[in-house]
Fold each of these.
Amino acid sequence: AQRVTQPEKLLSVFKGAPVELKCNYSYSGSPELFWYVQYSRQRLQLLLRHISRESIKGFTADLNKGETSFHLKKPFAQEEDSAMYYCALRSSTLGRLYFGRGTQLTVWP
Amino acid sequence: DAGVIQSPRHEVTEMGQEVTLRCKPISGHNSLFWYRQTMMRGLELLIYFNNNVPIDDSGMPEDRFSAKMPNASFSTLKIQPSEPRDSAVYFCASSYGSQISYEQYFGPGTRLTVT
C-alpha cells in the first residue's frame, strides 16, 4: 500500500542553519514524489517535484530509492521559509496524490 | 485566472445540520480533488473526479459525505448530518492531468466548525 511518512510534526532551526525535512515512502511501483508548501494564510502550493531535479527557493530534494526517502534540504534556512511542508507521492495507476501528515518548519531569527 | 475558488471560506454550524461546500476549479482543468485537513490526520484525499466522473472515493469517511460534479466548472461536497468530528479545513484542488506535469492547484480552503 502507498504510504508517505513525515516523522517530524514540528521542526525549528535558526536562520542560517541547514534544514532537512524528512520524508519516507512505501510504494510498489515507480514513485513520483513532490513537496508542497503552505505559507501562513496562503494556499498550499507545489514547491518541487523529483522528476524535475530542480532547486526552488534554495531547496532541493533527492529521491533515494534504496532508502525510500525524499528528504527536503536547504543549506541556509531563512525566516521566510517558515511554513507547513507536505511530502506527497503520486500513484501512477490512479493518478492521485498521497500526502504525509506535514512538518511545520519554524525558522527563528 | 483567480485560481481555484471555494465557498464559503468559513462555516459554523450545529451538529445535525446539512453543510454544503462549493468549489470552482481552474478553467480547463479536468481533475478535481477534495481534501480534508486536520491536526491529527494531516491532509487526506476524500474524493477525486476526472472529467466530472468520480474516480476514487475511497477516502470518503462514511455515507454522511457525498460529492458531486455536475459540470466541469463546479463541484460540491455535502455533509448530512454534520457531526463535531467533521470540523476541519476542506480543500479543493484541480489539475490538468498528464504524465509529465501533475501539479495540483489548491483553493484557499473552507474552515468548517461543527458545534
Note: The interface with chain B takes residues 32, 43-46, 49, 51, 86, 90, 94-102 of chain A (CB under 8 Å).
Amino acid sequence: KQEVTQIPAALSVPEGENLVLNCSFTDSAIYNLQWFRQDPGKGLTSLLLIQSSQREQTSGRLNASLDKSSGRSTLYIAASQPGDSATYLCAVIKAAGNKLTFGGGTRVLVKP
Amino acid sequence: DAGVIQSPRHEVTEMGQEVTLRCKPISGHNSLFWYRQTMMRGLELLIYFNNNVPIDDSGMPEDRFSAKMPNASFSTLKIQPSEPRDSAVYFCASSFQQVYEKLFFGSGTQLSVL
C-alpha cells in the first residue's frame, strides 16, 4: 500500500527565505506526482505535476524535483512571500491505477 | 470556466438526517472524484467516476454513503442517515482524463452533523 509522508508538518520562515518542502513515498511505481496548495477554508490548487519520466518541473518561483528510486520529491519556493503561507500537499498516483494518494501536508507560515 | 462548483458551502444537520452534497465539474472534464478531508485522516478518496460511470467506490465508508452522476455536468453524494463522525469537509474534483494530468478541486462543503 502506497504511503505518502510530508515532514515537517509545519514550517515557519521569515519573508525572503527560500522554502524547501519534502515529500516521500513508499512505492516507486508511480505514474506522476503532484504538488498542491490549500488555503484555509478552500479547496486544493494544483501547483506542479511531474511525470514519472521527469526529474523536475518549474513554474515561476516554484521548482519541484522527483527522485523515483529513492521515493522522494522536493518543492522549492524561492524568495518566499507572506502570500505563500498555506498548506502544501503532495500526492502520487500509481502506475496501474487512478487513485491519488495524498500526504498529510506541510503548513507553511511566511512571516513579514 | 467557473471551475468546479460545489453546494452547499456549509451544511449543519442533526444525526439521522439525510444529507445531499452537489457538484458541477468543469465542462469537458470526464473524470469526477469525491474526497473527504478530516484532521485525523487527511484527504481520502471516496469514489470516482469516469464518463459518468462509477469506477472505484472502495473508499466509500459505509452503505450509508451513495454517489450518483446522472450526466456529465452533475454529481451528488448522499449520506443517509448521517452520523456525527461524518462531519468533515467534502471535496469534489474533476479532471480531463481518467489517468489525470491535473486535478481541479471545488471549494468544498463543510458538513457538521450534530
Note: The CA atoms of residues 8 and 109 of chain B lie 6 Å apart.
